[in-house]
């Protein structure tokens, strides 16, 4: 059995959108599971819309998601001479022909088809005419001499048997009049030359499959196995749009999602493995197959993604999460109150606070904002909730606690907790009635990691200084 070779073949006319990312992931998992290769092809034949910035965004998005490819990326535009060679090969074999139909004639054909309620089709008028009939000054296209009877049948690995009546498929263009190849021809030639064995792509390409199979058959080439996966819809069942989450992968990074969480969420969009929700990368590779990809559109749900991201934040090691947050800061929306550069001491402070911070965060933005108090300058700015907590009565508690805390010999969560609990008991207060003013004074917010952990992370001098600021 030949080695499995899949490919991801994006068009660089924009960012790597979420549907493309899932297609790349499915190709990557299928190849990795079967010990094969996934190749990357940039389909940049649309020269007007293809941009270097889009190519960079696609490559960055794949790398961020942790999806590597084998070998160098292939650029389709650079293979135009090979595509022309194959079109001329078909011409010489009598499997294609020159067509001299003018733009006006093609418009008339489309108008006639519309009037008759039929799909627009080329009527084959140059299929059997000699070149001597060619009108002067018209540059011809090359069209495939497609079969006119019978069926073109695809045994799709997801959709099952799909058949098209050949009489409904016209002689489509392989090479334009300026000598540039069409998408249909370029894809077939590239997939053949790259030894692609399996084509996994969105089911919006299903109608292309029939035409591409006809090119394979005309050339006598083996047709790769194909799997057309349903598209992603919004939670409301409508076609995915920007309001649903049809954004670039870079936007998900900017929203504070972890690559591992997004990867896990994407693999579960349209593929199932029993009731399992969470997969390590190794588990994904071991379990992935095409037999359990559904035929119905998957529904994108931000709430589920956010919950999954929260799970990954909680289960990622403190050190790895600290590094990930610091590395991601340049991609997050700006927060001028949070440092962009970290020295060793600052990283250690963030690392020490991470166990309490990550329990309350569902995104890296929430994690960063929750950690803001660590690096705030004195006197600490208070948000509205913290200002509301620090009334005269609360400040009195702080004033009475300050000398007790100052007198501590050992500064630790256990030591500060003992002081605060003892004070609350003496005053016949619930612990929260004392802890909340402390939290407001130390963090400037009404929510934070455990208050005794906050004392520990800030250290003696900073903690006592912040309390003194609020008492004044």
Report the helical percentage. 40-55%
How much of the sequence is in beta strands? 5-15%
Mean pLDDT: 94
Q: Largest sheet, order of strands side by side? A: 1-2-3
Total beta strands? 12
Largest sheet: 3 strands, parallel
The gyration radius over C-alpha positions equals 31 Å
Per CATH, the class of the largest domain reads Alpha Beta
* Total count of helical runs of at least 4 residues: 19
Number of domains: 4
Brief digest:
Residues 115-131 have a biased composition (Basic and acidic residues). With 472 residues, the protein is mainly α. The chain has 19 helices and twelve strands.
How are the SSEs ordered, and which strands pair?
Blueprint lengths: L4 E4 L9 H16 L3 E6 L9 H14 L8 E2 L4 H13 L3 E4 L3 H13 L25 E4 L6 E6 L3 E6 L7 E3 L7 H11 L4 E5 L3 H14 L5 E5 L2 E3 L14 H6 L4 H9 L13 H7 L10 E3 L1 H14 L2 H11 L15 H15 L5 H7 L13 H6 L2 H15 L6 H14 L4 H13 L7 H8 L1 H12 L1
Parallel strand pairs: 1-2, 2-3, 9-10, 11-12
Antiparallel strand pairs: 4-5, 5-8, 6-7
Helix pairs in contact: 1-9, 3-5, 5-6, 8-10, 11-12, 12-18, 15-17, 15-19, 16-17, 16-18, 18-19
Structural account:
- This protein is mainly α and 472 residues long.
- It folds into 4 domains: 1-72 and 230-315, Rossmann fold (3-Layer(aba) Sandwich); 79-229, Rossmann fold; 317-371; 384-471, Arc Repressor Mutant, subunit A (Orthogonal Bundle).
- It has 19 helices and 12 strands.
- The strands form 5 sheets. The protein has a 3-stranded parallel sheet. Strands 4-5-8 form a 3-stranded antiparallel sheet.
- Helix 1 crosses helix 9 (281-287) and helix 15 crosses helix 17.
- It is elongated and about 105 Å long.
- The model has no long low-confidence stretch (mean pLDDT 94).
């Amino acid at each position: 059995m030949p080695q499995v070779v899949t490919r991801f073949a994006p068009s660089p006319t924009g960012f790597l959108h979420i549907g493309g990312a899932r297609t790349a992931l499915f190709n990557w998992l299928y190849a990795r599971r079967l010990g094969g290769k996934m190749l990357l092809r940039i389909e940049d034949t649309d020269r007007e819309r293809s941009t270097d910035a889009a190519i960079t965004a696609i490559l960055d998005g794949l790398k961020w998601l942790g999806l590597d490819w084998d070998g160098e990326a292939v650029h389709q535009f650079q293979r135009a001479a090979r595509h022309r060679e194959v079109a001329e090969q078909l011409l010489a074999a009598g499997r294609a022909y020159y067509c001299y139909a003018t733009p006006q004639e093609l418009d008339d054909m489309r108008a006639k088809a519309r009037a008759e309620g039929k799909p627009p089709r080329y009527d084959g008028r140059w299929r059997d005419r000699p070149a001597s009939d060619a009108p002067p000054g018209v540059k011809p296209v090359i069209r495939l001499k497609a079969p006119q009877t019978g069926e073109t049948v695809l045994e799709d690995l997801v959709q099952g048997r799909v058949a098209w009546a050949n009489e409904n498929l016209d002689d489509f263009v392989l090479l334009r009049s300026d000598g540039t190849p069409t998408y249909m021809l370029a894809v077939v030639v590239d997939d053949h030359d790259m030894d692609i064995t399996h084509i996994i792509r969105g089911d919006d390409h299903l109608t292309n499959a029939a035409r591409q199979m006809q090119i394979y058959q005309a050339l006598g080439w083996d047709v790769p196995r194909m799997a057309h996966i349903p598209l992603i819809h919004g939670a409301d069942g409508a076609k995915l749009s920007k309001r649903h989450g049809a954004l670039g992968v870079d936007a998900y990074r900017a929203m504070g999602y972890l690559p591992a969480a997004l990867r896990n969420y994407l693999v579960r969009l349209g593929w199932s493995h029993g009731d399992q929700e969470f997969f390590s990368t190794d588990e994904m590779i071991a379990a992935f197959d095409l037999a359990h990809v559904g035929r119905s559109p998957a529904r994108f749900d931000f709430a589920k993604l956010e919950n999954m991201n929260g799970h990954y934040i909680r289960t990622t090691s403190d050190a790895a999460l600290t590094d990930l947050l610091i590395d991601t800061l340049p991609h997050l929306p700006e927060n001028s109150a949070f440092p962009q550069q970290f020295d060793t001491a600052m990283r250690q402070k963030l690392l020490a606070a991470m166990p309490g911070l990550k329990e309350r965060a569902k995104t890296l933005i929430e994690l960063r904002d929750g950690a803001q108090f660590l690096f705030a300058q004195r006197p600490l700015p208070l948000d509205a909730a913290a200002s509301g907590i620090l009334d005269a009565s609360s400040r009195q508690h702080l004033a009475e606690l300050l000398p007790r805390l100052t007198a501590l010999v050992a500064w630790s969560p256990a030591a500060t907790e003992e002081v605060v609990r003892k004070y609350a008991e003496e005053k016949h207060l619930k612990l929260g009635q004392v802890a909340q003013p402390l939290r407001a004074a130390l963090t400037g917010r009404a929510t934070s990691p455990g208050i005794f952990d906050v004392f520990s992370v800030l250290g003696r001098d900073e903690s006592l200084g912040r309390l003194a600021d609020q008492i004044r």
